[in-house]
Design a protein that fits this description.
single chain, alpha/beta, 2-enoyl-CoA Hydratase, Chain A, domain 1, 4-stranded mixed β-sheet, 31% helix
Length: 179
Protein backbone atom coordinates (compact mmCIF):
# COMPACT_ATOMS: atom_id res chain seq x y z
CA UNK A 1 0.00 0.00 0.00
CA UNK A 2 1.39 3.37 -0.97
CA UNK A 3 0.51 6.28 1.24
CA UNK A 4 0.65 9.72 -0.25
CA UNK A 5 0.02 13.17 1.01
CA UNK A 6 -2.61 15.49 -0.30
CA UNK A 7 -3.26 19.19 -0.27
CA UNK A 8 -5.55 20.41 2.48
CA UNK A 9 -8.34 22.69 1.45
CA UNK A 10 -7.81 26.09 2.97
CA UNK A 11 -10.16 26.94 5.79
CA UNK A 12 -11.62 30.35 6.49
CA UNK A 13 -13.95 30.48 9.50
CA UNK A 14 -17.42 31.89 8.98
CA UNK A 15 -19.40 33.79 11.57
CA UNK A 16 -22.47 34.89 9.67
CA UNK A 17 -25.73 36.50 10.77
CA UNK A 18 -28.83 37.03 8.63
CA UNK A 19 -32.27 38.23 9.62
CA UNK A 20 -33.97 36.17 6.90
CA UNK A 21 -37.48 37.31 7.72
CA UNK A 22 -39.32 39.43 10.27
CA UNK A 23 -39.48 36.48 12.66
CA UNK A 24 -36.56 34.24 11.67
CA UNK A 25 -32.84 34.72 12.24
CA UNK A 26 -30.01 32.61 10.86
CA UNK A 27 -26.60 32.29 12.51
CA UNK A 28 -23.75 30.29 10.97
CA UNK A 29 -20.68 29.41 13.03
CA UNK A 30 -18.07 27.16 11.45
CA UNK A 31 -15.88 26.90 14.53
CA UNK A 32 -15.64 27.77 18.20
CA UNK A 33 -11.93 28.59 17.96
CA UNK A 34 -12.29 32.31 18.66
CA UNK A 35 -14.37 34.08 21.28
CA UNK A 36 -14.45 37.61 19.85
CA UNK A 37 -16.25 36.93 16.53
CA UNK A 38 -19.02 35.09 18.37
CA UNK A 39 -19.36 37.80 21.02
CA UNK A 40 -19.32 40.48 18.32
CA UNK A 41 -22.03 38.85 16.22
CA UNK A 42 -24.25 38.43 19.29
CA UNK A 43 -23.62 41.99 20.50
CA UNK A 44 -24.06 43.58 17.06
CA UNK A 45 -27.39 41.81 16.57
CA UNK A 46 -28.69 41.77 20.14
CA UNK A 47 -31.85 43.76 19.38
CA UNK A 48 -32.85 41.42 16.55
CA UNK A 49 -32.00 38.31 18.58
CA UNK A 50 -34.14 39.54 21.47
CA UNK A 51 -37.17 39.89 19.20
CA UNK A 52 -36.87 36.94 16.84
CA UNK A 53 -39.37 34.11 17.11
CA UNK A 54 -37.16 31.57 15.35
CA UNK A 55 -33.41 31.17 15.66
CA UNK A 56 -31.53 28.87 13.30
CA UNK A 57 -27.99 28.05 14.42
CA UNK A 58 -25.99 26.38 11.67
CA UNK A 59 -22.96 24.47 12.94
CA UNK A 60 -22.58 22.14 9.98
CA UNK A 61 -18.96 21.44 9.10
CA UNK A 62 -17.90 22.94 12.42
CA UNK A 63 -14.18 22.69 13.07
CA UNK A 64 -14.52 22.72 16.88
CA UNK A 65 -12.54 24.88 19.26
CA UNK A 66 -13.20 25.67 22.90
CA UNK A 67 -16.53 25.20 24.68
CA UNK A 68 -16.11 28.48 26.56
CA UNK A 69 -16.45 30.40 23.31
CA UNK A 70 -20.02 29.26 22.61
CA UNK A 71 -21.35 29.85 26.13
CA UNK A 72 -22.80 33.33 25.35
CA UNK A 73 -24.83 31.77 22.53
CA UNK A 74 -26.53 29.46 25.04
CA UNK A 75 -28.29 32.48 26.58
CA UNK A 76 -30.46 32.51 23.45
CA UNK A 77 -31.12 28.77 23.50
CA UNK A 78 -32.11 27.92 27.08
CA UNK A 79 -35.26 29.48 28.49
CA UNK A 80 -34.23 29.28 32.14
CA UNK A 81 -31.31 30.39 34.32
CA UNK A 82 -28.87 27.60 34.94
CA UNK A 83 -25.17 27.03 35.50
CA UNK A 84 -23.49 25.32 32.56
CA UNK A 85 -22.34 22.41 34.73
CA UNK A 86 -25.98 21.69 35.69
CA UNK A 87 -27.02 21.07 32.08
CA UNK A 88 -25.65 17.55 32.28
CA UNK A 89 -27.40 14.62 33.91
CA UNK A 90 -25.80 12.58 36.67
CA UNK A 91 -25.40 9.73 34.17
CA UNK A 92 -23.42 11.87 31.71
CA UNK A 93 -19.64 11.96 31.91
CA UNK A 94 -16.84 13.49 29.89
CA UNK A 95 -13.50 11.80 29.58
CA UNK A 96 -10.13 13.09 28.43
CA UNK A 97 -7.12 11.07 27.39
CA UNK A 98 -4.27 12.64 29.34
CA UNK A 99 -1.45 11.01 27.40
CA UNK A 100 1.79 12.97 27.21
CA UNK A 101 1.17 13.74 23.53
CA UNK A 102 -2.47 14.80 24.04
CA UNK A 103 -1.55 16.98 27.03
CA UNK A 104 1.23 18.66 25.05
CA UNK A 105 -1.15 19.33 22.14
CA UNK A 106 -3.89 20.72 24.39
CA UNK A 107 -1.59 22.87 26.49
CA UNK A 108 -0.22 24.37 23.27
CA UNK A 109 -3.77 24.94 21.96
CA UNK A 110 -4.88 26.58 25.20
CA UNK A 111 -1.82 28.83 25.21
CA UNK A 112 -2.76 29.88 21.66
CA UNK A 113 -6.28 30.75 22.87
CA UNK A 114 -4.76 33.00 25.53
CA UNK A 115 -3.23 35.18 22.79
CA UNK A 116 -6.77 36.20 21.76
CA UNK A 117 -8.76 39.14 23.03
CA UNK A 118 -10.73 37.28 25.74
CA UNK A 119 -12.98 38.39 28.55
CA UNK A 120 -11.60 37.81 32.04
CA UNK A 121 -13.88 34.88 32.93
CA UNK A 122 -12.90 33.04 29.77
CA UNK A 123 -9.22 33.76 30.36
CA UNK A 124 -9.53 32.42 33.94
CA UNK A 125 -11.29 29.28 32.74
CA UNK A 126 -8.62 28.57 30.13
CA UNK A 127 -5.92 28.93 32.79
CA UNK A 128 -7.82 26.40 34.93
CA UNK A 129 -8.15 24.02 31.98
CA UNK A 130 -4.39 24.32 31.34
CA UNK A 131 -3.71 23.46 35.00
CA UNK A 132 -5.90 20.36 34.62
CA UNK A 133 -3.76 19.14 31.72
CA UNK A 134 -0.59 19.87 33.69
CA UNK A 135 -1.90 18.10 36.81
CA UNK A 136 -3.05 15.01 34.86
CA UNK A 137 -0.06 14.97 32.49
CA UNK A 138 0.58 11.43 31.26
CA UNK A 139 -2.12 9.82 33.45
CA UNK A 140 -4.14 8.37 30.55
CA UNK A 141 -7.91 8.19 30.15
CA UNK A 142 -9.69 9.94 33.05
CA UNK A 143 -13.19 11.19 33.80
CA UNK A 144 -13.33 14.98 33.87
CA UNK A 145 -16.13 16.47 35.98
CA UNK A 146 -17.83 19.53 34.50
CA UNK A 147 -17.05 22.37 36.85
CA UNK A 148 -17.90 25.47 34.82
CA UNK A 149 -19.75 28.03 36.91
CA UNK A 150 -20.85 29.95 33.79
CA UNK A 151 -24.41 31.13 34.41
CA UNK A 152 -26.78 31.08 31.46
CA UNK A 153 -28.74 34.27 31.99
CA UNK A 154 -31.72 33.58 29.75
CA UNK A 155 -32.16 37.15 28.65
CA UNK A 156 -34.44 36.63 25.67
CA UNK A 157 -35.03 33.22 24.16
CA UNK A 158 -36.69 32.72 20.78
CA UNK A 159 -39.82 30.59 20.78
CA UNK A 160 -38.14 28.04 18.48
CA UNK A 161 -34.44 27.25 18.21
CA UNK A 162 -33.21 24.99 15.42
CA UNK A 163 -29.68 23.59 15.34
CA UNK A 164 -28.46 22.52 11.90
CA UNK A 165 -25.74 19.91 12.16
CA UNK A 166 -24.10 17.10 10.26
CA UNK A 167 -21.57 14.39 10.99
CA UNK A 168 -18.58 16.72 10.63
CA UNK A 169 -17.87 18.73 13.73
CA UNK A 170 -14.94 19.06 16.12
CA UNK A 171 -14.79 18.48 19.85
CA UNK A 172 -16.65 21.66 20.87
CA UNK A 173 -19.30 20.84 18.32
CA UNK A 174 -19.66 17.47 20.06
CA UNK A 175 -20.67 19.20 23.28
CA UNK A 176 -22.70 22.02 21.72
CA UNK A 177 -24.97 19.95 19.44
CA UNK A 178 -26.48 17.52 22.00
CA UNK A 179 -27.54 20.32 24.34
Amino acid sequence: MVLSSYEYDSYNPEYYFDNISSDTTYLKITDFAEEKPILDILKDNKDILQKTENLIVDVRVNHGGNDEFYFPLLDYIFDYKVKFKNLFGSDESMYTNYTVRNCDLWINELEDYLTQDLDEETRKSIHEETKSFQTNYGKGFLEVPEESEYLLENGFTPRHVYILTDYYYGISGDTFVPM
